[in-house]
Amino acid sequence: MFFFILPISILLIAIIVQYEQSIYKKMGVIGFLRRSFLISLLAHSLIIFLFNEILSLFDGLTIINTRLFWSILVILEIVVLYEFYQTYPLRKGQAVRLIMQFWKNIRYADKWLIYTAILLYIIPLMILSVIVPPNNFDAHSYHLNRIIEWLGNHNINHYPTRHNQQLYHNVFAEYIVMHTFLLSESDVFAGTVQFLASIGSIVACSLVTKRLGGTSSVQILSSVMLVTLPIAILESTSVQVDYVASFFFITFLYFGYEALDYPEGDTIIFMALSLAFGSFSKYTIFMYSLPFCVYFGLRFLQLRGFIGSVKIFGIFAAMLFFVFMPFMFRNYDFFGDVLSPVKETGLEAENLTVKEFSFKNTISGMVKNVGLHIGLPSNSYNLFMESLVEKLHKMLGVNLNPDGADTFLVRFVLHEDMVPNTIHQTILFFSLVGLFFIKGKTRLNYFALCACAGFAIFSSLMIFQLWSSRTQMPFFLMGCIISAVVLDRFLGKWTVYLSFALILFSTVFVLANPSKPLVPLRYYSKKFLSYTPIAVCPQNKRQELTVVRKLTKFYSATLNKNKCFQLQNIIPRKDQDVVFEILDKVGYFDEEKYETVFTSDKTKLYFFNHPNDYEKCRDLIPRMKSVQENIGILFKAGNGYYHYWAMIQGDKYQFGQMKYIGYRPKYSELSNANQKFEYRYIFGDDPGLLKHYYKKNLIDTVYSSKGFYFAKLKWKVADIISL
User: Fold this and answer.
1) Is the sign of the CA dihedral 411, 413, 419, 423 positive or negative?
2) Is there a domain that residue 43 lies in?
């Protein structure tokens, strides 16, 4: 398969970098191998960026061009590697001896940690990233939806849409994912981008630990902590973008510290490139990076003087301008602003930043973000912790739930956007306290200070959202490093027991990821804990009647606006078993009890994170799958359509088969709006729009389901509807 050209190219570049001898002796063979891997990932990120931007100018983002480009590149890499080998023969015997010597020096227990982590985490997660199709809701709404629009248009310019976040949200992670689509003609390898980012982050995390004075055992400990981080586990197989952004962030930190120790010119380039690509993947990277930019800037001023520091600043400014300029120009040209639509355009723009800045609001934001990671599978405990946070806000005189922010809740949720890092946060808290009792760790102290300052900046600027667990990944990556170095000072060789405990505990998140369950462990965990939901949302009349007849002692007697029975009273431990059994007998947990990635068909796997959408369109799926012609998307709601497009694709995907045919008039200004799109079928969510805009004699047949319709027209049209 052509997809494998990409990992081969990454490997070849990493080997070619081995011939750079200037820093080799200073780092050691293992450190140099890890550094080479990071450089290769950065180099390929730059190559992908340039390829996308340049070929987009000529509508050249096609399967043929992409496969031809990567094939030629790999051939050139092989030629270069051969020439290097002829000129500077790789001292294979010496390299192998050094690697073997390094491996012998690793503690026996640490070797078993590595074996166990690979067996229980790396291999299963790699498999999951491939065998399970992308099923994250955000990915369906805009991350992947923008990719199939780009591929249908053969460029990355803005296009007409009903979900304008597809246009102005950061795009770099999708630039990379798009190449997995182009090379494989499918979405099979879309999840490997975040998985590869997780491997890169583990490598970078270990190298930063080394720069902070960590021995090989401490580097292994920090890597194990990252491998077992719940949000990292679930993100590593998703098609979100947070792990990609976090990888570039931690790489920025590594090359920053390397630049302080070894002032090589290329190190500054790698550092600037990492920051640019990280923030181009997620703007929040700027927030976490700001304290480190100040720290590195002051240190560069110390080490290189004013002129040298100005040159470094110029490199960073040029790199950020180089990366952001094309995208921001497209935004400004259409939206009137480089970041998001201005009001005059009449287009919606979400506001994720706080409205009022104050010290009290910063404390509030930090407390609530910390509160995302204190949840346990115990309603009574979670409600108690909620009450403490509420009391603290009353003392501060700050509104716990201001307008625009999510309602604060303490909960334990096994979801790849919101899972809490409770144990890791607890370890980090005690590690930060322990820092006060460690002498002679100045660099680590500044690292921890910058990490906490970045978290404070994030909490000050971003409104509270329940899914912010994933946007806090950069902070927790730094937390793994801090915790490893501090714990080593206090626990020494006993840290290996903590590592094994984390590995055993966190396997739950590998096996029971509700988006990609290998085993129905989530159900059995709930059964073991006698889990009682904070709200019961019946799926049928039988379940509804059961709650009304048997559980009104604890739950409301009527359905709320979300069609759920809300928990009214804390359920005593002795009654929790009874409540669980009652709900289990009426099939309330059946979906969790029987569904795994092995028992569900591919179509249903696409909808694991939003099963209601599957139920709404299920009756239409057979008819839609039989269609090979273009399908117009006529949505009244501002939703993405990736999952509906993906569920009807065969072995080779038709990237331009679906497009929005109803959108705001302003989108007609875009050049991509002029690309002719003829369709004979319409998939929509409001039959009224179909009746209003299409004449009766044009409509052949309309098939309906619970929430959608699929219409067949008598002949092809290219009509566009202004909504």
Assistant:
1) positive
2) yes
Domain, as residue range, for 648: 604-722
Task: Name the residue among 633, 638, 634, 659 with its Cα closest to residue 153.
Answer: 659
In sequence order, the 6+-apart residues with CB closer than 8 A to the CB of 352 are: 462, 463, 465
Q: Using DSSP, state whether 153 is helix, strand or coil.
A: helix
Token representation of residue 134: 């992308």
pLDDT at 19: 67
Same domain, 589 and 610: no
Q: Which residues of the chain have pLDDT under 50?
A: none
Residue 555: Cβ-neighbour burial (10 angstroms; 0-12, 13-18, 19+): buried
74 and 2 in a common domain = yes
Predicted local confidence at residue 698, as pLDDT:
93
Count of structural domains, the chain:
3
**pLDDT tens digits, one per residue of 439-481:** 877 899 999 999 999 999 999 999 999 989 999 999 999 999 9
In a domain, 335, yes or no: no
Same domain assignment for residues 577 and 669: no
Residue-wise pLDDT tens digits, 345-379: 777 777 778 888 889 999 999 999 999 999 998 88
Cα-based distances in Å from 395 to 244, 373, 390: 39, 22, 9
**pTM for this entry:** 0.90
Domain match, 631 and 562 both: no
- Domain assignment present for residue 399? The answer is no
Same domain? For 538 and 632 the reply is no
- Kindly state whether residues 612 and 572 are assigned to the same domain: no
φ and ψ of 708, to 5 deg: -140, 170
What integer pLDDT is reported at residue 707 of this predicted model? 87
Going by C-alpha positions, the residue among 691, 693, 685 that lies closest to residue 638 is 685
